[in-house]
Amino acid sequence: MTSVLFLGIPESMQHFPARRIVCLTEETVETLYLLGEQDRIVGVSGYAVRPPQVRREKPRVSAFISADVPKILALAPDLVLTFSDLQADIVAELIRAGVAVHAFNQRDIAGILAMIRTVGALVGAAARADQLAKGYEARLTTIAARHASNNRPRVYFEEWDDPLISGIGWVSELIEIAGGEDIMPELRAQKAAKNRIISADIVRAAAPDVILASWCGKKVVPEKIRQRPGWSDIPAVRNNRIVEIKSPLILQPGPAALTDGLDAIVAALWP
User: Fold this and answer.
1) Contacts for 237-242 with beta carbons within 8 Å, 24 or more apart?
2) Is 233 buried (19+), middle (13-18) or exposed (0-12) by CB count in 10 A?
3) Predicted confidence band at 191 (pLDDT cuts at 50, 70, 90)?
4) What's the rounded mean pLDDT across residues 41-64?
5) What is the H or E stretch that residue 21 is in?
6) What is the CATH number of the domain that holds 221?
7) pLDDT at 11 over 60
8) Is the same domain home to 89 and 189?
9) Structural domain contains residue 257
């Protein structure tokens, strides 16, 4: 195991690379498994499903905006990995308890790639993480080139149904890489879901050719979408092009979105 001696800090007090890691969101879990560093993980989010064996191998210690802090502390982690402002209260409680925390906040593809490289650095696997990230960069470039066309289907991505919430940054970017045109690209920079709330009239006026939906953990019901007032004339509804993409594939800003999530978008746009 690689070790680094920080000047002025006794080696016995150092925890780099991190040896006991708790991951409170799923993308860091998948990244550590892909790096072959899963043995460092001592606790995970209940939403972690990739790879499948994680549900058998690792204790679950949190949901998304709530966590069993005593259970986390009992695992004696030397690092907890979190994501977004929605976990700020958990982070504060852990810091007050003396736990080291790294809070990620990636909202676009560049941020996802940076997260992968940072996780690698935190566990002494920077070179492997860089190679993993470069592999994803090459994959995105290849897919974008394959689907470069002037005939780009117009796409509405629905992250939530009540109120209607459009897609976050990395989702919008992946739609474009897949050869589609996001009908509301100006909203991709809005990190908070409340700032991506839109009206049904806006979607109707935009007339998307394809509707992609991922209702953040609950099953999409296409019939509810079809029955919205005035939506029967939307090309995507008229031509039965309403496609659900499972949340674990597209709504976690990590490897899944760049692989299976992107592939699901491509399949929906180019059947």
Assistant:
1) 237/211, 239/209, 241/209, 241/210, 241/211, 241/268, 242/211, 242/213
2) exposed
3) confident
4) 97
5) strand 21-23
6) 3.40.50.1980
7) no
8) no
9) yes
